[in-house]
Design a protein that fits this description.
The complex is a heterodimer of chains A (277) and B (270). Chain A has 277 residues and is mainly alpha-helical. Chain A is built from 13 helices and no strands. Chain B has one domain (54-269): MetI-like (MetI-like fold, Orthogonal Bundle), CATH 1.10.3720.10. Chain B starts with 7 loop residues before the first helix and ends with a helix. In chain B, helix 3 packs across helix 12 (224-232). Classes of the chains: A mainly alpha (277), B mainly alpha (270). At the A-B interface, helix 1, helix 3, helix 4, helix 5 and helix 8 of A face helix 1, helix 3, helix 4, helix 5 and helix 6 of B.
Chain lengths: 277, 270
């Protein structure tokens, strides 16, 4: 083999993936950006529509509201199960891990379908409540915003658990022992020492969950039944139902900018390893 | 030694969360045995008709074979590219490592719907030039999936690489090993478990992928999730429950295998 400089060997290893993503992802994204300025006619018309069209506005606000609720709900629930996963007895830890990882590995479609089986008119909950005589008519639990929030929270809990659990694992046990030694109660140790020491993990979890929730469209499409459209589903509808590629493209560009700025500001809280369990 | 085990309050809350996480997966099981044509809980009679439908309707078998083919190709592509990239980052520690890693993680942090639109653009553009890779072709779907799953493979391989002791590579280098020898004889054997995990996770992610697939397929490249999606939107077909039960079983088995190998690797390293 002829002698090669370190630079050319480095390029040999790094270039294939960079080129692959550059050509198959970045360049086509620039194409989408171009659509947002040229379809249906050249100009900033689509961006103006984003800020004035009442339909788009209402979808933005609904998306923001749902994302905030989902983030708060998944963080709270993730915190409880992460605590048991990290600090429970050996059996509790195994059970918690099972409950976190099994849903994490199951496809978003299967999970959304599972919630339909739970929440729809002839689903588990309504069938039980009706046969127990508690309600006469089925409750509207799916195909609305409630169903969307439940389904998304369920999807995102594992993503919140990983950074929170990682923060809990890195707490120095001696700090807690010192607090106990000085006579602090369990509750006091938990709220004034343990929880503040996990703020970094909580912020990381909140960011991941919020960003993922923003771009979600499979779960809302299935559990919302078209009645609770979120931004991502709006893009889908704009491309496949009322062909308006320009608006879909403009929404995509704005979403990427928003998330890019958010992640750039908060990047020290995000650890990529947390995204894969 | 842990000083504080979870108290009763947090245990109750965590149990409720655990039930919340598992309930929808359990609820699928009775629905799959309903004798009715619509989504419902069976009352009394159980029926296997929806499992029978999976066998009788060839569309299911076709879509499963297609998803397997796409999953294997895209996972192999993503794992190979990610391994080269990971080796480059680890062996050379280039100046802008963080930036380069951030760049390859883009498809992971960009909202799926934006990636979907981007890949839709790519596929319709490619279709203008050839009939093989493009919109609604299986190679096109495999290419799009490879783009989407590469970041996961990169993360897993980097995590594995950071656990490798640098001194063994320095020793190999000091003894005059070439780049290829260092990569194939020294480093890769030490991260083979990470590479296998990356390939497995990539395959599962491609196997499950729906967001992008929905945008870039119409009638020819119907993957399994695409077929399920069609049965989920309006009138819900209980056959979806039957296939879901099977998928949950497969996932549990794959997860079991993964945990088994993890345990074995952990036992070996001790």
């Amino acid at each position: 083999m002829p002698a090669k400089s370190a630079t050319s060997r480095k390029i040999m290893l790094l270039a294939p993936l960079l080129l692959f993503l550059g050509l198959a992802y970045v360049v086509p994204f620039l194409g989408v950006v171009r659509w947002s300025f040229t379809l249906p006619e050249p100009g900033l018309g689509q961006y103006r529509a984003l800020f004035t069209d009442p339909l788009v506005q209402s979808v933005f606000f609904r998306t923001l509201r749902i994302c905030l609720i989902v983030t708060a709900a998944s963080l709270t629930m993730a915190y409880a199960i992460a605590y048991v996963w990290v600090r429970g007895s050996s059996l509790q830890r195994t059970l918690a891990e099972f409950c976190i990882l099994v849903p994490f590995w199951i496809s978003v479609l299967t999970r959304a379908f599972g919630w339909l089986a739970m929440l729809s008119n002839r689903g588990l909950i309504n069938t039980w409540l009706q046969s127990a005589g508690i309600i006469a008519e089925p409750l509207a639990l799916a195909r609305n915003e409630f169903g969307v929030i439940i389904g998304m929270t369920h999807f995102l809990i594992p993503f919140a658990v990983f950074p929170i659990a990682s923060a809990m694992r890195s707490i120095d046990e001696r700090v807690l022992l010192a607090a106990r030694g000085m006579g602090a109660s369990r509750t006091r140790i938990f709220w004034t020492i343990f929880v503040p020491l996990t703020y970094g993990g909580l912020i990381g979890a909140a960011l991941i969950v919020f960003v993922f929730a923003l771009g979600f469209f499979v779960t809302p499409a299935i559990l919302g039944g078209g009645r609770s459209v979120m931004v991502a589903e709006l893009v889908y509808l704009r491309i496949f139902q009322s062909p308006d590629w320009g608006l879909g493209a403009a929404i995509s560009v704005v979403l990427v900018l928003f998330i890019g700025i958010l992640l750039a500001l908060m990047r020290r809280f995000i650890k990529p390893a947390h995204l894969v369990g | 030694m842990q000083s504080s085990r979870p108290g009763p309050v947090i245990l109750i809350v965590a149990t409720a969360v655990a039930l919340f996480l598992l309930m929808p997966l359990i609820a699928v099981v009775p629905v799959s045995f309903t004798p009715a044509r619509f989504l419902s809980m069976p009352s009394g009679n159980l029926s296997l008709r929806h499992y029978q439908a999976l066998i009788d309707n060839p569309a299911w078998a076709q879509s499963i074979l297609l998803s397997l083919r796409i999953g294997i190709l895209s996972s192999a592509t993503a794992t190979a590219l990610a391994t080269l990239f990971g080796l480059g980052i680890w062996m050379f520690q280039p100046r802008f490592s963080a930036l380069l890693i951030g760049f390859v993680l883009l498809p992971l942090v960009v909202p799926p719907v934006v990636s979907a639109m981007t890949l839709y653009f790519l596929m319709t553009t490619l279709s203008a030039f050839n009939n093989w890779i493009g919109y609604d072709t299986w190679l096109g779907v495999a290419l799009a999936h490879a783009v989407m799953i590469t970041p996961f493979a990169v993360v897993l391989i980097l995590v594995a690489l950071y656990q490798v002791d640098r001194r063994i590579d320095l020793a190999a280098r000091g003894l005059g090993a070439s780049l290829a020898t260092r990569a194939f004889k020294v480093i890769i054997p030490n991260i083979k478990f990470g590479i296998a995990t990356a390939a497995l996770l990539s395959f599962v992610l491609s196997w499950e992928e729906i967001g992008v697939t929905l945008f870039i397929t119409s009638v020819n490249a119907i993957t399994l999730p695409r077929l399920m999606w069609m049965g989920l939107r309006d009138n819900i077909d209980p056959a979806i429950a039957a296939i879901s039960v099977l998928l949950i079983l497969v996932t549990a088995i794959i997860l079991g295998i993964r945990i088994f190998f993890e345990r074995r690797a952990a036992a070996k390293s001790q």
